[in-house]
Amino acid sequence: MTLRTGSTVGESRAPVDRPVPVSARPPKKQTSFDGYWPWLFVLPTLLGVLGFYIWPIVQTGYLSFTETGPFGGEEFVGLDNYQTMLADGNVGQALINTLIYTVIVLAGIPIALLMANLVNQPGLRFASFYRVLFFMPYIAMPTAVALVWRMIYNGDFGILNWMLSLVGIDGPYWTSTPGFAIVSVGIVGMWASLGFGIIILGAALKNISPEYYEAAQLDGATTWKQFTSITVPLVTPSLFFVTIISVINGFQLFDLLYAIMGQYNPALVQSQSLVYIFYNQAFIQNDKGYAAAIGMLILVVIGIVTFFQFQMQKKWVNYV
Amino acid sequence: MSKESLSPAQQGTNSVRAHVLLGVIGFIMVFPFIWQLIISLSTNDQVMSVPPTFWPGELQWGNFVDVFTKLPFFDQFGVSVGITVIRVIGQVMLCSMAGYAFARMRFRGRGIFLGVILSILMVPPQVYLIPQFQIIQNLGLLNTILGIALPGIFSAFGVFLMRQIFLGLPLELEEAARLDGANPFQIFYKIMLPLATPGISALIIITTLWSWNDLLWPLVVTTYAEKMPLSAGLATLVGSITTDYPVMMAASVLAMAPVLILFIMLQRRVVEGLAFSGSK
């Protein structure tokens, strides 16, 4: 289609004030542009994105090959930061922690599908009430809910350890014991992200034609059989989407870890995530070059994981 | 799907079993919020008692008063509201205009520029955060509402979302308006924008959620407690008055309440908006 500038429209089209049938339009010229108007629309965003995102990305790439001097200047150090990073046990541990957290969050996706299925039953009463209960953790401020979970996990007077004590289990100091800490954070992450899966998968469930289920019922298929043979295959594209987003978000673990563990936690060094290490190096230790290298590592790892997910989708995702 | 597709008997059994199950799961999901409220109305001694105090008896509303007197809550609330409003207005204006141009206008380099903008969707924030901080620092905007909000008024996601919306709208209306002598901005503002309401409301919902809840970036560009938004304020609180648990819980209740209540009231719209953005 052709958009013209205001003046041109006024001159050439003014006499025509009745709707013209679509077929009566002049033939499109592929080479015609819309003058300066598009730039008015696009330029603010384009400049903002170039200035605040694209240029910083280039700069981070450069920074990762530099070292911040004692007086703030940058000195080119080649691959030093990357070599340090690969030998840094804390970074390796952070990668493992991030993976553990991500896997725990991913384990929530099947639960989210079951919950979405429950809440989307035809004719269910109070469905929107349940839906609110389910998606509250997703929209609540992570920092705020993290503080509640700190209380629940508290080793001395937390309600979790009190419940465990009822069945004779002596619960650990969840958030300050290495190993337990990242799992504790992971459980909160799963709880908080279930709502996202429920919303996306719920939308997919609504698009499944009831005829499939009617036919299956006539054939005597059980509810479970219907779930595994109709529901699951038909929502695989949405499952794939939720998986991709969950992995990307999982690798961004920061808020919950920061707020659940606090800055003075004895288990913090063994429980850091990649983003936490990045934040700490960049803005607390002020080692911007090293932090930039860690940022590049996060980029590469997410890239690799996402690439493999797209490779593997052929094996399990059904596009109708 | 409709009720009619199930026999009444089936519906009956489904309902009872389903409601028990849904009730149990629902309770587990909201238990932390209930517990948060209970603690926020207890005394510190009750919070630290074993076995736990499930009902504080006399409700300690004073904890909520303490939030305003002992913490810079008003300041932080103002910062949170400020950055959210700036980001929402900025994104709705900029993203809808850019999205419209990418969907409907012709100009040199359209595909390349769209590609450049969308490429940042594939990059984790850590790859641009440090230079972003340096830009805000050089602009003298550290510890300001504008400094926290500024990078977030540009959104590749928003441009993509709005472009998808405009691509899905019929061409005929625009053509008629053009024949009536409307200029491209009038066509966009008076005709296309009102039709894009579902996309705009999805964008508002998502941007509100992100900017109200975001922690990392505000933590980076603010150093004074009274200049922080609520998310960063709460997170740094952990180090300072950790021992006053009920006040901490009251602060966290008040920090998340505005968006939570708003979104619960607009439940249908929020669910649609989030589902919508996920389906594109």
Question: Can you put this structure into words, describing what you see?
Answer:
The complex is a heterodimer of chains A (320) and B (280). Chain A is mainly α and 320 residues long. Chain A has a single domain, classed as MetI-like (MetI-like fold), CATH 1.10.3720.10. Chain A is built from 14 helices and two strands; from the N terminus they run H-H-E-E-H-H-H-H-H-H-H-H-H-H-H-H. Chain A has a two-stranded antiparallel sheet. In chain A, a hairpin with a 5-residue loop joins strand 1 and strand 2 (74-76). In chain A, 41% of the residues are buried. Chain B is mainly α. Chain B has two domains: 3-65, no CATH class; 71-240, MetI-like (MetI-like fold, Orthogonal Bundle). Helix content of chain B is 74%, strand content 0%. Chain B is built from 15 helices and no strands. Chain B has helices spanning 8-40, 44-47, 62-70, 73-104, 110-119, 126-138, 145-149, 156-167, 172-179, 184-195, 197-213, 216-221, 230-240, 245-265, 267-279. In chain B, helix 4 (73-104) crosses helix 8 and helix 8 (156-167) packs antiparallel against helix 11 (197-213). The longest helix of chain B is centred in the first third of the chain and has 33 residues, at 8-40. Residues 1-5 of chain B have low confidence and may be disordered. The chains are: A mainly alpha (320), B mainly alpha (280). Chains A and B meet through helix 1, helix 2, helix 4, helix 5 and helix 6 of A and helix 1, helix 4, helix 5, helix 6 and helix 9 of B.
